[in-house]
Amino acid sequence: MKIIGTGRMHPSKVVTNQMLEQFLDTSDEWIKERTGIAERRLISSEHLEDMAAEAARQAIEDANLTPADIDYIICSNVVNEYITPSLSCIIQGAIGAKCACVDVNAACSGFIYALDMADDRIRSGKAKNVLVLGAEEPTRMVDWSDRSTCVLFGDGAGAVVVTEGEGMLASRLTTVSKTDCLYYKRRLEPTPYITKEEEFGPMYMNGREVFKTAVLSSARDISTLLKQTGLQPSDIKYYVLHQANMRIIEAIASYLKLDMSYFPHNVDRCGNTSSASVALMLDELSRGGKLEKGDKILLSAFGAGFTTGAAIFEWTK
Ligand code: UT7
Description:
The chain is an alpha/beta fold and 317 residues long.
């Protein structure tokens, strides 16, 4: 398959580190030094499904298609206001498409899982044009009095349209069940019959553990894909990595012995937008005129699970 359109939508509310200093025991200096984040965009009056629908409209228009041409929608999402129906189902109605839809949850790696599923769908001949989204509001999972997590996240929605073609050169997905270092358990409605103890509360994250696992697993996925395709690290124009922390991106750059010009980033302006981050970055690159036909880009993400996803694309647009 190949990517033929991209789109993105950020919430309007910009929250700077200085704004967080007003109610948290934190500092602009700490946040910038440990994460590279200067500000993030947070949902305030918006609904995630509306943002996702707007990103979808942009991607479809960019692909020179209409919603009627889309024959499958896959939306990567961890949390939103609805448990059911799926976000992709709501997006379908909002944009006026008619196809089957499904959401996937592979945490921050989800957008790459969704792309891989779209590739399968297209290869099997069951779909021609697939709309793939990463739409996330991780700021609704954290405790806003916990400085170790709430400063890290931002919200957003990114979308691509993919179709039959020769753009995706390789992909790799991995999952290792390691559920205790990053999780969020939400409260379910009680029934008269529940006798077990149930825990719920805001997101728990062992930051140091996740940091280490993220660098090692992303570096491994990147090496595997480069080897598989016979490419050298410098043959890739851009490494579009999950935007969790600038230090993670810098560690991967150093592992590959490449300078930071290969690593576009938005974590400084958007925070960690979970599985939307790679999709947002792709649209920023494409609309910013940074991608030319024939460029090779490598996507790599990691997240709760522990999951990882990576893919190499040749830009064909
Ligand atoms: O997409 C989901 C995947 N998640 C990630 O990729 C996150 C990966 N992990 C990280 O990015 C980093 O581990 C963090 C940014 C979360 C934390 O950075 P760190 O360098 O690993 O710091 P730390 O957790 O070891 O904490 C160092 C100190 C602690 O104080 P003490 O115990 O040394 O006195 C923390 O309490 O920094 C303190 N601290 C803060 N101080 C000021 C933690 N958060 C803050 C804060 N402001 N916001």
